[in-house]
Amino acid sequence: MNADKIFKQVDAIVGDDVNKLMELANIFLVNGYPDKAIETYKKAISLHPEYLELYFSLENAYRQAGERDKISGLRKQIDETFAKPLNLKKPSRFFSTNSA
User: Fold this and answer.
1) If DSSP codes are grouped into helix, strand and coil, which group holds residue 44?
2) Is CB count within 10 Å lower at the N or C end of the chain?
């Protein structure tokens, strides 16, 4: 059985549960599949955009995948999603532990 088939089976089991999606993405990331982690974090964000932790986990996955060019766009998305509605100043700047 190839890896893609296994990934699809696992994805079907996880479904739309935000906690399971986060765990699955974390498993992909620590096992050397940053592209699958990114795909899973993006799915989780599309289903549950209110979970700030997902955005920072996605940022970490981009970093591990060598896709640093996508981080600034993601930070803008964080600011738009979380800062604007609350009149906060750029939470991505305060919560992120790594610089772009």
Assistant:
1) helix
2) N
Q: Compute the distance between CA of residue 93 and CA of residue 18 in angstroms, rounded to an integer.
A: 24
Q: Do 96 and 56 contact (CB within 8 A), yes or no?
A: yes
The length of the chain in residues reads 100
Average pLDDT over residues 23-50: 94
53: number of Cβ within 10 Å: 12
43 and 21 Cβ atoms separated by less than 8 Å: yes
The per-residue pLDDT for range 58-75, each reduced to its tens digit, is 999 999 999 999 999 999
Q: Which CATH class name applies to 16-95?
A: mainly alpha
This prediction has a pTM of 0.79
Taking the C-alpha atoms of residue 66 and residue 38, their distance in angstroms, rounded to an integer, is 12
State which amino acid sits at residue 91.
P
Question: Running DSSP on this structure, what letter comes out for residue 70?
Answer: G
